[in-house]
Amino acid sequence: MARSKSSDQTAPSGGGKAPKGATASGAGKVGKDGQPKVGRLKKIGNNGRLMKQAFSLTRRNDPKLPWVLLIWFIVVFSVVELIGILLDSPFLFLPFAIIMGALAALIVFGRRAQGSAYRQVEGQPGAAAWALENMRGDWRVSSGVAGTPQLDAVHRVLGRPGVILVGEGSPQRVRGLLAQEKKKIARVVGDTPIYDVVVGDGEGQVPFKKLSAHVMKLPRNLSAAELNSLGRRMSALGGARMPVPGGPLPGGRQMSVSQRQVRRRG
């Protein structure tokens, strides 16, 4: 005799799995990282708030910022629209002129925001670490791997060039720290290139404003797989051995986040 199917469609309490893409409470979808997905409108709102925050912080130290952006917008808009007039298609070029003007203003804003941030942190302990941590790309920064009570510090960066040691503080003390750290690392990394950089304005030093550009221009000596292998070997040396100021910039964490957002758009 065949069994009759139960008409109760309710899932057993606690025994069934939640539908794919739904949270345990059924409130919304989750992404690949297991976190609730953020709606597109919410993302736009968050990005807008970050841009507004970056604009306010930059304008505080750069009062001419709104006028500079307006001038760039007008100049680029006028040039594009002039081309449209010469081609007898001014209305066709109008949307393109607006987009290009806004893009030019956004690029200028990103550069001036970056310059403002660098001016605020320059000369403060931890400034070099802040600059290194805000570089674009796969750079693995360990801040304060060596230092002195006078707040001289050496930061270690792993990247496609190899190992980069960056020292900030008194050049005399920093060079000794760099030599010790370089000798210790050489035992672990083998033939991997090791670069040392001293931040400063003296001979043989790299100015703070050019630090990130200098590091990013170093030759690419490692593949992505070799970089991962290097990271595993370097993990045996540990990380920071001294406290490094986490935010030399007033409201540093906020500017750091906003600055990255601005760079992505610039």
Q: What report would you give on this structure?
A:
- The protein has helices at residues 40-61, 65-86, 90-121, 127-133, 171-189, 211-216, 224-234, 252-265, and strands at residues 140-147, 153-159, 162-168, 194-198.
- The protein has 266 residues and is α+β, with helices and mostly antiparallel strands.
- A four-stranded mixed β-sheet has the order 1-2-3-4, with helices on both faces.
- It folds into two domains: 40-121, no CATH class; 127-241, no CATH class.
- Helix 2 (65-86) packs antiparallel against helix 3 (90-121).
The gist of it:
The chain has helices spanning 40-61, 65-86, 90-121, 127-133, 171-189, 211-216, 224-234, 252-265, and strands at residues 140-147, 153-159, 162-168, 194-198. It is α+β, with helices and mostly antiparallel strands and 266 residues long. The protein has two domains: 40-121, no CATH class; 127-241, no CATH class.
